[in-house]
Every structure is written in C-alpha cells, then in structure tokens.
Design brief:
This protein has 1 helix and 7 strands, in the order ββββββαβ. The protein is mainly beta. It has one domain (4-87): Beta Barrel (Elongation Factor Tu (Ef-tu), domain 3). The strands form 2 sheets. The chain has a 5-stranded antiparallel sheet with strand order 2-3-6-5-4. The protein is globular and about 35 Å long.
C-alpha cells in the first residue's frame, strides 16, 4: 500500500444487505463524509476503487459501510479482513 494510506480494516458483516463494519484508525468519530470511494487490494500491489453507497457512525472507532454493488451478506463476507486505503496527498 505504497501510494495509499491505510485507514483501518473491514472487521465484520452487519446484517443481510451487504453492510460491513469498518474499524478505522482516524482518531475521531467520522462518517467519511465527502469521500466517494475507498481502495481495496485486489491482488498484491493492485488496488481497485470501491464506491461508497452509505456510511454511518457506529462508535468512535467504527463505521457501518456499504459499497455499491454489494447487496448480500455473502458478497460482503468476501471483502472482510481487507484493509481499505485512501490515496496519499502529495
């Protein structure tokens, strides 16, 4: 994740609609407002953008997040344990 900075980890699936729990390391409550996508590693050193459909605060360090195209628990489960990132600013 050289050109991206890691913001946490997808730790669990929440519900049956594809929503997940993102445990973040951003240091304060956030709903990722203003952020349209996160990058997840597809293959080693290959990252794909996943567009955020919704994100809401769960706690100081956790967010409920739903990505576009993910609408089932099974699809979400395939992304759990992934570490999303944001592009580094220059």
């Amino acid at each position: 994740m050289k050109e991206f900075f890691n913001i946490g980890k997808l730790v669990a699936v929440h519900g049956v609609q594809g929503e997940m729990i993102l445990e973040h390391t951003l240091g304060k409550k956030t709903s990722l407002k203003g952020l349209s996508c996160l990058y997840l590693e597809d293959k080693k050193d290959s990252f794909l953008p996943w567009f955020i459909q919704s994100a809401k605060i769960k706690s100081d360090t956790e967010i409920y997040i739903l990505f576009e195209g993910i609408s089932t628990r099974e699809a979400a489960k395939a992304l759990v344990k992934n570490k999303p990132g944001c592009p580094k600013q220059k």
